[in-house]
Specification:
The chain is of the alpha+beta class and 262 residues long. The chain folds into two domains: 3-130, no CATH class; 138-261, no CATH class. It has helices at 3-23, 35-44, 83-90, 100-107, 117-130, 138-153, 157-171, 226-236, 247-261; strands at 48-52, 55-61, 67-71, 78-81, 113-115, 185-193, 199-208, 213-217, 244-245. A five-stranded antiparallel beta sheet has the order 1-2-3-4-5. Helix 1 packs antiparallel against helix 2 (35-44), helix 2 (35-44) runs parallel beside helix 5 (117-130) and helix 6 (138-153) runs antiparallel to helix 9 (247-261). It is elongated and about 80 Å long.
Amino acid sequence: MAFRDNLLKKMEIDKNAKRVLDSIRPAGSLHKVDKNSMIFLLESAAYAYEKKRDLDLYYKEQDDGKKRIVVLDNDLSVYHTTIDDVVIRKSPFVKEMVSIRNVIKILNDTDVVVSKKEASVRAIQKESIDTLDLSFDESDLKEIEASGTDALAMSNSEGVMESLLLFCEILGYVTPPKSFIVRGQTVMSRRTEMEDETTLYGPIVLYNEADNEIKLVEGQLSTIEKEKINQLHKTAIGQAAPDMEGAEVFKFLKKEAMDIRR
């Protein structure tokens, strides 16, 4: 797969991981974990599926002859053992519970459980991402820049957003705090943590999908700089000039992405 496709896949993996993490609740809760998103992660990480009794199991072969097994339930436990062992521990028949050895297994699974819940999701997320080649060169960045520029010229907001979000993923840009947000616009920014624990945001990209306008404000500002934030809002709605706009924004983002690669 091309870098662009792999990066889009990584973004989809991260999105599904967040959905699963957001759906996890404390033990005893009736709320169900987001199984569809978890299945996406497991399939992305090349886990095979097997149904055993009432258990949905996803597994990978390991070098020691055992398996890495994920039980698709609210606990999302990851086991390092065999499928038969997991079945006895999680869904035993009455006749299997006669064995003292099996009872001990059922009551205590710490010898085979690798992780649970959030830790399991993050581990599978990493496994999924590790299957992707995310290395890139200048030609990959030029392709994203060109796609964004062409989409902007054709008023293709979906294409503009895709290129913008791809660059933001590469650069680690995030959605800034609520005070920076302008209604109806996508706002993305680099976030920098200073030694004095101040958080600075900038450069800031603003995309107005309705008007098909993309702008960039250079420099950095914090949440306490009300005048600068007010100026940012004026820039967003056309009452103040941005530092860059249109295709120049994609050219800037491409250069920034190339700089972090060096």
